[in-house]
Specification:
Blueprint: E1 3-11, H1 16-27, E2 31-38, E3 44-52, H2 58-67, E4 71-77, E5 82-93, H3 99-108, E6 112-116, E7 120-127, H4 129-139, E8 144-149, E9 153-156, H5 173-182
Antiparallel strand pairs: 1-3, 1-4, 2-3, 5-7, 5-8, 5-9, 6-7
Length: 183
């Protein structure tokens, strides 16, 4: 599956998520992942939306999102140009004789044990989506009982900052925001 990650700045107001979800529903766009959270500015929230590029025109999604009144900015984060993370909680069956092996696999992937019973372990993993997929593949032979995975969150790498404020001439977007705030 070819996915595209969109970082969307929206007004932090009731009903914005419903408007975005309604757009996707009306246009029959498929959402692979959706995460919403506050930003450093209490007036703005950030949505990280992952869409399946094979079934959905990403340019069309972006254009439709930009038409929504409460959407401030839409940026596609290109492959490799963003730090992407997901959180997963994974409950795995554990044979006492294989507990050491299971803990070794968890350690290799940086997963933490957050709950333990005589027959199960609950692991917590925060990593890139690809690394999380690899961990799940390694855990499959042990018997995954339950799995919950958050939506993907992402930030552009380097000094690039996504903001709804226009950049001042000669300044990067972060510097422009600080200059405007100081004025």
């Amino acid at each position: 599956m070819t996915t595209h990650t969109l970082s969307v700045l929206v007004e932090n107001k009731p009903g914005v998520l419903a408007h975005v979800a309604g757009l996707f529903s009306r246009r029959a766009f498929n959402i692979a992942s959706l995460a919403v959270g506050p930003t450093h500015d209490e007036r703005v929230s950030r949505m990280t939306i992952v869409v399946d590029g094979a079934s959905t025109s990403v340019d069309q999604v972006r254009k439709q999102l930009e038409k929504l009144v409460r959407v401030l900015k839409v940026v596609e984060l290109a492959d490799g140009s963003a730090v992407e993370r997901e959180l997963a909680l994974i409950k795995v069956r554990v044979d006492p004789a294989l507990r050491g092996q299971l803990l070794e696999v968890a350690g290799v992937f940086g997963a933490n044990v957050v709950d333990m019973s005589p027959t199960t372990l609950v692991l917590e993993s925060v990593s890139s989506p690809a690394k999380l997929d690899s961990l799940l593949a390694m855990l499959a032979p042990y018997g995954t009982c339950e799995l919950v995975r958050t939506g993907r969150i992402a930030l552009a790498r380097g000094a690039s900052v996504i903001t709804d404020e226009p950049a001042a001439p000669g300044l990067g977007t972060a510097a422009a925001g600080r200059a405007e705030a100081a004025a």
